[in-house]
Amino acid sequence: MRLWRVEEAQRLVESELAADLAEVWARCRGDFHCLEKTPYDSALVGVGRWWAGPFTIGNRKLGEMPFFSLPPVTTCPGHTPFCLRWCYAIYEVANWRAHVREAASYLLSQRDDFVDVVLSYLAKIPHPVVRLHVSGDFYSRAYLEKWAEAAGRRPDKIFYTYTKSLDLIRRVETPENLVIHISADPYNYVKAVETWRELGRGLITYVYTPGEDVGPIRYILENTGAVLLLFLNHVQHAPRDDPRKIRTQLRATLGPQARRVVFDPEEFSSGPQCVQCGVCWRTAKYFKDPPYRKTWGIDMRRSTS
Ligand code: SF4
Question: Domain Gene product spans what residues (predicted)?
């Protein structure tokens, strides 16, 4: 297992480089000229087409959408043995600048001025949807409350994420434009079901590893009314097969229960990237009063089809 990546993440959090980068982001407050004057290259400090300070704008799966990430596992209090074996942030992100930026983002998130700082960068970019935690998770109540405040202050943007920090999301009130989905796996699915039944909102997501027992998937579908978003385990050491064949087999195995399963279109059928897809961020049921439809002309009736 590639757990040096987790140890490396912790070392970077303690590094002078990460501490200085967090300080620079806070001092420059959305001023890109200020960032340019630092000794750091643009991909590290976050200037140019694909960055806005601590936000990286886009990746292969998301499309052109800003995201904010933290170090993997060490910021995930709800991590399970599944994460250590399969988390793509451990096995697939192999860019040292991204690792330093995650560490600096964690340090930034601990500051009292975190909300003002991240909003200062978001004010400089037009993107209406922001993904939290391509890597990392809500690591404390105070940190979750900071994103709740940030989303509350920018009701014109949607912030969305997936979490295994199930105890935290049960305790903190969040605005509707902070969309939090429950991330289930073979180790936490019973608790994921309990959490969804208590909150009654959001998707439940599950990363399917080809060949594994579908018992947890059945349990989730039988014990909730949730839509289950199925991802495909695609890290390098996962078993491989044709995604369309896997989808067909799963549909046959699950029978009528498969009607409540959304097979991730990007992973099972080379479909659109998240910025176009929107299953995770423009689902009508999450937004009782949909100003977003007016703002962006979004047809929310297509939510989970
Ligand atoms: S369902 Fe759509 S929005 Fe959600 S992760 Fe997959 S591609 Fe992205």
Answer: 64-282
Q: Is the ipTM of this complex over 0.90?
A: no
What is the residue with the minimal CA distance to atom 8 of ligand 1? 274
Residues of the chain with pLDDT under 50: 284-305
Domains and CATH numbers, the chain: 4-302 (3.20.20)
What lines the ligand 1 site, CB under 6 Å?
229, 264-266, 274, 277-280
Could you tell me the distance, in angstroms and rounded to a whole number, from the CA of residue 188 to the centre of ligand 1?
22
Q: Give how far Cα 261 sits from Cα of 32, 206, 256, 267, Å.
A: 43, 10, 10, 14
In the numeric block, the tokens 């959408």 are attached to 65
C-alpha separations of 288 from 51, 159, 169 in Å? 32, 16, 19
Q: How far is the CA of 272 from the centre of ligand 1 (A)?
A: 8
